Fold each of these.
Amino acid sequence: MESRRRCCGCCSRRVLIISFAITGVFLLVAGLVLDVGGVFSNIIKNKVDQSVELKPGGLVYEEWVKTSLPVYMKYYVFDLKNHEEVMTGKAVPAVEQKGPYSYRELRSNEVLNWTSDRSIVTFMPNRTYVFDPETSCEGCDDRNDTFMSVNIPLMTLALWVRNNNYDKKHEFCFLGMLIEAELYKVKLFQRKTVYDILWGYKDPFLEFLVKATQGIHIPIIDKNITCPGQDGLTDFVQLQYNNTYYGISAVNSGQTDINKLEQFTMWRGESHLSWWSDKYANMINGTDGTQFSPGVDKQATLYAFSPEVCRSLFFVYESDQTVKDIKLYRFTAPEKLYLNGDTYKPNKGFCMPSGCLPTGLLNISRCQPLNPPVVLSPPHFYQSDKSLLEAVHGLNPEKSKHETYVDIEPITGIVMRAAKRIQINIAVEPVKMFAPTNGKFSKVFLPVMYASESFVITDGKAADFRHKVYLPITITEVIQYFLMGLGALFILVALLLLILTANKKKNDLELRVNEGDGHVRDDERQPLVTDGRRVFITSLTVFGLILLVSGTILTASHVFSKLIKDKVNEDVQLKPGSTVYKEWVNSSVPFYKKFYMFNLTNPEEVMNGNATPNVEQIGPYSYRELRSNKVLKWTDDDSIVTFMPNRTYIFDPETSCAGCHDKNDTFVNVNIPLLTLALWLRNTNYTKEQPKVCSAGIKATVDKFKLKLFRRKTVYDILWGYQDEFLKFLLKISKLTGCPAREGITTFIQLQYNNTFYGISSVNTGRTDISKLEQFTMWRNESHLSWWSDKYANMINGTDATQFAPDVDKENKFYVFSPGICRSVHFTYEKEVTLKDIKLYRVTISDEVFKSGDVYPPNRGFCITPGCLPTGLLNISLCQPMNPPVVTSPPHFYQSDKSLLQTVHGLKPEKSEHETFLEIEPITGIVMRGAQRVQINIALESVDVLPQTKGSFEKVFLPFMFASEVAEITDEKASDFREKFSKMNTAMKITKMFEYSLIVIGAFLLGVVLLLPCFDNDKKVQENGTKIEEKDEKHPLIDSSRKTFAHQST
């Protein structure tokens, strides 16, 4: 019995130890696998790779298309202080630096096309420079400030004359050139404004030389001659840096190979350069220096192609940097980049036939128009041959001021800070045959100016970057290290249990030995590690409680869920760089507006009262709707954005009915301008209030144009407008007779739906309150409507139906403001649907929205005197120019009063064809598919003020047309969405698992603590067994049997 009990206790301890050990090993291995195996890091890396690819919606694409970063081009000019002494050979050139003259550089890239696999994008770079006094030197003005330097066009001309033996081949022309140079008083060194040198000027002397190529009279020889010249002389007005023509270029998008991200594949339509002497030098290699492939390695050599220097450059790692709490790698141009070609053989290809220039210099004359003697170097001859500094005084090279560098965020490859610095020098030398350049000086590389192009990420973009990139990485690292730490702790607990068990066995053994000797005391029967056991149990309890409480708090407070929701909220806010902003500014989703016209087949019978109107639906006439919103201003806290909506419609035969054409197809329906005029005459008592000549004139005009209440017009005319000759003539009569006429009568040429003027509007950006995302705060410069009869009806409430606040609740009402029907409406949840593997909530317009005000009192405000219309109808005449009798309804009177279908034949309402619905992605609130359908009816009635509008029919709401505006997310955007938000869902599941695991492990540890008393019971049982044995040993029968057994054994 004793051994069985002891075995039972040992087995319980063994199970506990093994459980702790296995759990610890599992957690430790899981953490190590996630860390070393790179599970999370691979997920994040893939996410980063996809986000930096050049593709619409990517992290860098919008910035690449139109840079919002403040890029500055700062020019420092070198004023030559001793030009006369230099010309006569009496002194070395001495220069004084002036500046900076700073220009804000506006960068954009106009996308021209993509390859079929979207791996290459072809584009046209655009650069605009705007002078910025604030970042320029104090008091500096580029248009007024001047400096002395070399006359580059003259120096270029002199070299061209010499190199082409012009003085010998064209003696008379050369003679005329010298004479004109003297007359124009041209000199080798000239004073010009900074603006002229940077951005161009016209040189009178060069203009004369161009005329000479067309034929001039040389007075000294009295001859008319035509002189050969160099093309483009008058256009030589700028230095190389400003004369750079970027041209059509192409770069790799990274979509098929992220390692080639933004690397040039073409520049100016060519895949390689042509002016250098070997293949290596002519390579177009690298990016534009603003982005490199993600996962930057410190050991890597990074390449950038620079059009300004007509070659590719390379950079190597120098040091770690930190900018706005973002860790960066600084890469700089190494010294060997500028080494002389004779010293560093790879640079041999950059040498000219005449030989290699000293270290630090690059002759780019061949890649410039007219081949001016332009030589580039680092500013102040930094990292250049020392002899260059000896040849020009006034220079002081410093690493911090003159070095070119890029500070790269290594995870994404995005350049967060950079400075590209280039000095432009002119190879000045005397050309003796040409008097203006005939000096007594030695050839010198004279600095003219240097440019420093720099930028640094803004505080806002840095914060966005940290949130989007660093936060997920931090969370995954915490999870990994927590699992490893927890696993190690479990293993440690298992080891402690093992030690305690071993000590207990030892104590039991000592106890039994002592008992055999008969020297056992009560305290000796107690375990020797009672205090350690107590500490262990307490630690286990505390740790279990910490895990359980932590897991419960995290689960209840939704900490991780809130982090992910915050990320979603950031993405859907209306702010530059967010997921939805670009789509809101210029929508790429294919919206289609489809119009169905109702052709009245029995107009004469209706007029005579002999038949109920019978209509035949024709269409659809489909138009691609191009949507954009032009931002006008933001509020100070960016909570409201004011904008001008723009809508453009393009007829699309492919999605229209077969053979349909809006400009050719006609249909018969009500003559709306004539009916509107008749109602106006009646409602204003025109015939009684105005002279008879006025009403007689109107009637005569109607007769003259042979107008009828029903007429045939083309679909295009009705939708997009036409000039009505009747209305134009009527206005002329009004002016001649002095009779009043309705303002704007000549321009009433369209139905309400197409006459909607969106006007300046404002919506909430969601920046300060995400629940108000994209809700209208103003429309047509008004915060509420004015044509309805109560405050509720006049509310401008809701979004434009393309976006709602994220984290959609099925129980909510979804409000939409619709300019098309001059009111707000609300939708309610109907069911869940799936579109392209994305789960959506379908919401539809609530039945109560179109109920008659007599049936549903909240709708009383939409009633217009003399009463409320039947359910389904909305009189919008008051919100239209000239108040035409336009009444809207759902198509085919769907969800409307049944009596309406009895007054018009040819209608067949169907839910699938005529219902308005929106399908919303619940996490983001983005509408992925939708259809807004509105029917326009004319309140047709007999108006006896004009014979043409007087009929024998009852008032009827005659369907005129209905419009169905439909949109659906494309396959490509659906794929992008799934990819992006599936990772968020994965992260959400991982965090849930993490939270629940804390609770489970905590509960498990507390359970272990509760089970530990069982081991104490085992111990007590064993002790009790020992006491029984002691008593048995004192019993004479038992003692005798034991002695007998011992004797027999002996």
Amino acid sequence: MTITPDVRLEYLEGVASIMLKFKPDKWGKMLSVEEHLAWLMDARLQNLKCIHDQLNRPKVNKIVEILEKAKSCYWPALQNVYLNVTEGLKEANDIVLYLMPLRILLEEMEQADFTMLPTFIAKVLYTICFIWATSEHYNTPSRVIVTLQEFCNQLIEMTRTYLSPEEVLKGLQGEIEEVLNNISLSVNILRELYRAYDFCCVNMELFFKKDKEPVPWEFPSSLAFSRMNAFFRRVRTVEDLYKTAIEFLKLEKIEVGGARGNTLGSLVTRIYEEVFELVKVFADCKYDPLDPGDPSFDDDYADFETKIQDLDRRLATIFCQAFDDCNSIESCAKLLYMCGGLLERPLILAEVVPRYSVMLELFDAELDNTKILYDTQIAASADGNIPPIHKNMPPVAGQLKWSLELQERLETPMRDLRRIDHPVMSSPEAKLIYQKYDEMMDLLRKYREKIFQDWVAGVDQDCDFNLGQPLIQRDRGTNLVRVNFSKALVAVLREVKYLNFQQQKEIPNSAESLFSKHETFRKFVGNLELIVGWYNEVTTTVMDVEFPLIEAELSAIDVKLQAAETTLFWNSEGVFDYIKEMREILHNLQNRMQKAKQNIESISQAMKDWSSNPMFERKDNKKDALLDLDGRMATLNKRYTVVKDAGLKIQAMVAENAELFRADTTSQSWKDYVNYIDNMVLDEFDDFIQNSLNYLMHNMIADESIAPLFEIHMELDEAGLVFTPSLEVGSDRGFLALVDGLVNDIYNAAKLIPRLAKGRLNYKSDLEDMTDLIEMREEMSSIVVSAMKEAEEYQDSFERYSYLWTDDLQESMRTFLTYGRALTPEDLEMHAEEAIPKAPPTLAQFQQQIDSYERLYEEVSKCENTKVFSGWLQCDCRPFKQALLSTIKRWSFMFKRHLSNHVVSSLDDLEAFMNVARTGLKKPLKEGDYDGLVEVMGHLMKVKERQAATDTMFEPLKQTIELLKTYGEEMPEETHVKLQELPEHWTNTKKLAIQVKQNVAPLQANEVNILRRKCQQFELKQHEFREKFRKEAPFSFNDPDPYRSLNKQQKSITAMESSMEALCKSGSLFEVTVPDYKQLKACHKEVLLLKELWDMIVLHPNDPRTGCC
């Protein structure tokens, strides 16, 4: 390849450009100092190294030799290139050497937290100063200015990133304090830049070596900081905006008191709202507030300041009015504190200053009041009296404390006044008040000195005398001991303690010495208090049965305690060794006694753990539940297991107590102790049984608020109405036996713990002989028997239904069909020798019977499902009730079935009768045909006999069907057809009979006349009988034998009824109307009522409803 002259020129120009280049090509945009340093240290150095390598290649060296030997015109230029490249590479290496620390520092700063920038700023500037002082090639003003500009640019970007231009003003309506802290931090960091720069400028000689002349930075700072200055001003303006906003937004929490508090408070709130709206303008802005080149923020801020000045004037007026309402320095100080920095605003401060004089006047009055209190205290302490002091404080320290508090009462407002930095507080009036304050402080100081010196004068004697007293004292009356630490010593210790709290100086040596040993005395007193406490506890709590077991040990202890009562003093040697010895002895005894007593309590607790609750309780412990008899065995197994475990624990603790007392188990004193525990266990068993029985008895009372405890079932079986369990006394499976079994289960728990006292039967035997328990069992038995009797009486109340399950249904039906009613024993007795008159029932009677059973069904349905006897014995009547309802249904169905059968059979019988009668009446009748006449008369008689019944049969049958229908009983379709057709057939049969009857009419006329005369005679006879009945029947209590009278009247009535029936039969035969004879029927009805009345009188003589009026 041929190198032309043009190529050589281009190469030389390129080398020259690299040599002269100290800035990268992208200098048009603002670079950070790191980017600039990176270019200088990497790109430029690399380029120079490459050029140097190129120039030192063998081929280039060969060309250089040729050019030099040929004395070419390019040789001088090439020689300059060599020199320049060598110098440039040297320069680049020098720059890299000195800029490398700066680059590393800047990289660390970029990665560091923003709050750490102050330390980096100083380091960076110091590094730049060192580069200026030591570098041979990078120590020109232009290069330093560029470096500083780029460093400022980097700080500006980091600050903008930290504050976030988009969010910096939004904090005015959010976390304003937090954002202000960030802004203030940024201001302080930027201020640190100026401080470090000024330090560098002033102290530049510090960075130069001693043998080198310092070169200051004489270039104007504006060349390096022009952009930073504008940015710094903008950030400080934003900070001022935030501070103003914070001061005014604090108005939201200001509460103004006084007479005009509400009015002034509303005015403050209104100002707050206006400031809030002003701040909202900045929070909603769309421009970049951290860009100094944008004037939008400056315009808004100028408008903001104008409006804030108006608000300052309004606030000044409000604050002045609030000051006028303050009546104490404290309230004034609080108002000043509450208003805070707002009072420092010039417009507000000008209005508030005159109010400071008022505070001085208030303080002057407070000084006068304090002097009055001081004089009163001095008067109260005259003649050696102790003036009023703080509660629980010793006299000297209390008086000193009073003086200090009075002093503090003045110091507090004085501090508030001195915080006010204003000429008013230095006026002659203020100086006079300060003088009064100093005089009062001097009086209080002298008062404290006098009180203290008086105490100092007698404290030495108190200490010396009382330290020579014995350690303990014994009360000969009670034989108890107490610690003999003098009250005077306690008083000295208390005084010194509180005086130390008050930081009192010059306390006497004796008191200081005593107090220096207060830990020792506290240890002595504390241990002696333990010893005394244990001794007194043992002697006062030991029981009579325990004392013989520890009597010898207590006597030995009394001997040892004599030394502390007579020869050992508080200032003696070996006191603590003696205390330790006695503490161990008494602690051991007290521990054993305490453990023994704890075992006794544990024995009692072991019994109470299982005996606190009754043996049997309601199911799931619910107040409305019955006694849990279903879980009886589970309860017994569980409780018995717990009792056995308690017995094992009790035996173990008794054995442990023998060791604790170090007792001889064969001695009488130990046997007495065991008997004591045995009686305690027996008492616990007694309490348990009483608790269990009381629980049962408490729930076996007639109290509506207490639910029933036991339940029995009333049932209907083959034997009749019975209870389960049985209420018969003496029954092995009866209710009384059940309750006795529960009581025995309770008593049997006493057999599960072996007897502690030797030679005695088990606990149950003793418990069974206890009078109170025997009386409780007897009382419970009487309660149970009383409830059982009440239940049996309730059972008797259902006897009125007994016929339902005792009477035979078919036999009762036959009786009803025969007599139209059920026969009573009185009917059987009355007609014992003659047949009871038959009276077939009517449809109404059937309906009455069915309705009676329906009503009875409703009545029984409404019967209670449960019945409670004596308030605690609940009877479940549902089994009996269901069985009785089923029985009633069977009775009702029997009558319904008979009616349905009656309808069917009546229609079938009538159809058969009409067929036979029509056949007989249609036979031809000839004169002299006697048999034919008799047969026709027989058919006529049968038709006549059936006519009345048959004429009225169809409607009753329809009524019967309708009646059955009302009860839900439907008849077959065939029956309905017959009921529609048979009436017409019957009418035709009657017409046929009338035609035949006309032939025999003359023979009947004579007989009709005779029958009518008999009817008239019987009418007169019944009236006479009615009058006689009213006189002779037992209508009053004066009748000596009412039943005989009733029987006589019943017979008379029956006889009259027989005569009446004969007349009715004849009348029916000859078609004669017979009267109703109502008088006779009335007698019949009344005699029945009299019978029932006299039955009630005889059976219930004590019932007031049957008594004589």
